[in-house]
Amino acid sequence: MKVQVNGTARDLADGTSVAAVVSLVGAPDRGVAVALDGAVVPKALWDSTIVPDGGVVEVLTAVQGG
Amino acid sequence: MDDPLIIAGREFRSRLITGTGGAANLSVLERALVASGTELTTVAMRRVDSAGQTGVLELLRRLGIEVLPNTAGCRTSAEAVLTAQLAREALETNWVKLEVVHDEETLLPDPVELLDAAERLVDDGFVVLPYTNDDPVLARKLEDIGCATVMPLGSPIGTGLGIRNPHNIELITSRASVPVVLDAGIGTASDAALAMELGCSAVLLATAVTRAQDPERMGAAMRCAVEGGRLARLAGRIPQRFWAQASSPGL
């Protein structure tokens, strides 16, 4: 299936979880949040939330700024 | 003298809130933050990229400085609300410095989007610290909908032009019942002192320190300026006069 991860098109296996996408992008263990199709996915639901075909995933962390 | 800054029931001894943007590297940032005495510091939320962690969170934790996520880069209320919700999830804080800017050239707040985002975030349980124009009416509206502070600009972000409309800042501080934080435009120590003399409760700055030739020394300068300005405000300045008035007794 085709999904957008942090603005990049990716081809992922059907049934890929949010947790799998988080490790795919090499996110650190702490200080990370995920939005799927414009809504926050709480960390407790990363394993059980499956990314749909055409889904848009954003994986964010804190950086220097402001 | 015990004179804490209180925002949403939380006490801070330092009245200087700093940003982390613009520092050449983390070690320069660390020395500047320590010298500034800050207890609350902003970070931005960005996509995780191949470069991995920036280390800024670990640095702030190690220094015992509270993290204040911002919504820098957001142009609409919807973007800012989502960014604040992601920051709450990632950083386990319901505090947010709300920034909704209109365009890249001025980075001035978009008042319509800002007010809408502030209202939605307050409803969602956030402690909202909005970066706003130096507009006394907008400041009043932000306070009325439940923002924890109002944070008017002195001049546009990163310009170092100081406080261009001191009277507006004084109008805002004279009738606000939440802390007023002068946010953006500070260039040097006298700007920070002036903000406090105009009745601001705190100053938020980044570039003036992080891009100074000696960030550590400028961090210390800002600390002293904020303390000096606060003391002067509390002390009550003399009225200005047109003619001289001798301070020594007559002959």
Describe this structure in words.
Chain A has 66 residues and is mainly β. Chain A has a single domain (2-61), classed as Roll (Ubiquitin-like (UB roll)). Chain A is built from one helix and five strands; from the N terminus they run E-E-H-E-E-E. Chain A has one helix at 18-24; strands at 2-5, 8-11, 32-36, 39-41, 56-64. Chain A has a five-stranded mixed beta sheet, with helices on one face. Chain A is globular, with a radius of gyration of 11 Å. The model of chain A has no long low-confidence stretch (mean pLDDT 92). By secondary structure, chain B is of the alpha/beta class. Chain B has a single domain, classed as Alpha-Beta Barrel (TIM Barrel). In chain B, a hairpin with a 2-residue loop joins strand 1 and strand 2 (10-12). Chain B is globular and about 75 Å long. The model of chain B has no long low-confidence stretch (mean pLDDT 95).
Write a concise synopsis of the structure shown:
The complex is a heterodimer of chains A (66) and B (251). In chain A, 11% of the residues lie in helices and 38% in strands.
Mean pLDDT across every amino acid position of chain B: 95
Shape of chain A: globular
Summing up helix and strand content along with how strands pair, one would put the structural category of chain A as mainly beta
Strand order, largest beta sheet of chain A: 2-1-5-3-4
